[in-house]
Amino acid sequence: MSRRYPENSDVATYLVNVCCELQDLPGYERACEMLASLEPNNPHAAYALAGSRYVNLRPVLALEAFENAVRRFPNHEKANDARKAIAELEPKVDEILASKNLTREDGWDIAALFERAQSYLAQGEYDKAKEAEKELLKLLPDFVSSYNNLSLISFAQGDLEGAIAISQKGLEVEPDNIHSLANLTRYYLLSGDIKSSEITCEKLKKSQAPGWDVWTKKAETFSYLGMDEEIVELFEQVKAKGELREASVTGYFPHFVAAALARLGRVEEARKLWREAAKATQASEIAQANLDDLKQPVGQRHAPWALPLASWITRNTLEELAALVNSNSKLKDEQQIAKATQRYLKEYPQITNLVPLLLKLGDPQGREFAFRLACFAKTPEMLAALRDFALSQHGLDAMRYEAAIQASEAGILPESMSMWIQGKWQEDINLIRYELHSEPTTNHSRRVKQMAATAVSLMKTQKVEDANQAEKIFKKALEIEPNSPDLLNNLAGVYQIQGRMEEVYQLMLEISEKFPNYTFSRISLARLKIDEGKISEGEELLKPLMTRKRFHVSEFSSFCNAQIELCMAKKQKDKANAWLQTWEQLDPDNSQLRQWKFRLTGENVLKKLSQMSGWKL
User: Fold this and answer.
1) Cis? peptide before 40, omega within 30° of 0
2) Whole-structure pTM over 0.90, yes or no?
């Protein structure tokens, strides 16, 4: 609306309020500028503009705006707060100007132009930011900060080669500039030039050059490379120098440290730092997102992540991908989708290098982006990335499990392997992709259907007298349709209710031999063997079904029940949980899942309740 009605002050007012509620600080500053321009005599707009520049760390522009507001509206309710801010900002501004060998007389306009350029960059106004930076370089040809910002603009606009070239120009002026080295390390990494990235990063580690928020810049760069131990070491250096408070102004430094600590297993220390970063800082949103994600069950967490997807990939590149997806949205053939995705990767080869990094270090959006892209493309590089991701401890269990299946089907992982599931390594995870269907497994005449339904209803009572009646009905039905494995299987069920176990075993074996594709009898027999403690016999009966990939829904339910019972009998609770997870992914609404979940986890819950309440269980 603000773009459509740029002269409407009501829209600008709404935009100010919305950005404030969303804690969109760059957007808030931009909206305040719009409102103050439209309503120059509005004291609230004048003070809001000054405050927006203050929270966005624009000291020169903030001082200018506060002085203007106090001069024009000296009796406003915010005037005294503004005077305090002026007293705080004046020495800081003088210090900033002095660091560039400038004074208020000869450097004010330059400093204001510099901050305005930074503001445009943060707001995504790239053309305005580029114009301001070029104007600065006319005034100060060796102003490295402008080179750094111009490189960021080039990257944001999708010109990675241009961003590298501009960063190199900045380093010609100041070879140890931390921001230039950090940016160049990142650009090399994202372009796939790993060797150059590592060389530049080594220079960055050694650099002690002064600059704005250099600790955060180093930690951010190390985060791209997954250098967790180096980030923690940096944290210790900052604490030893007594500069932690200064380094934590934006909240990003403690956030980067928290992400590194969490990846190193020091989760409680990470939570503490994220809580600090979540308190009204620029990093509050990403810090809180990590904290919220850690509340999920261990197998459903993406955390920790240090950087959002927008830090890894440009908006233009994402828009190109969106156009590709939209243009191929009607494609149903997997080969067509794969070819379309492969064309995209050829056009943007740097994305191929990004996928493994995003699978390892990305936020939920970034990891999902990389995962889907790799699954669609199925190139050797993408399949290798999926394999490595499956073998890692990063991201959601379900996502890694799907990656493992993709890699297994491509022949680069076995059909059974160890995986990190529910926060620990679990062995013999089955990677076969099962297909479930609900098609009828047998066909009966209407009369036999009615007879079978009546007999099954009698069986459900589990009473011997009802079972006797059901036996007569099933035998009459078998006279009509003698080659019906389901009728025979139900008859075996009747024998079980009656306690005729030898006949149960004999009949089930006959069914298995005569109807090898009918699984119920084999599974039922295996479950009986397991229940009687004949574990190896039960396991042998189930083995032929392990390579079967297509099941009826009810067959699969019985099969998973048997596998979980086998695992529990062998005291392999982790493996039982893995089978339960496989079952839940394919048949999430099955009523039997809840019973197994309680059996597998309820004991621990009861123990915790016992400890809390003093009960003895």
Assistant:
1) no
2) no
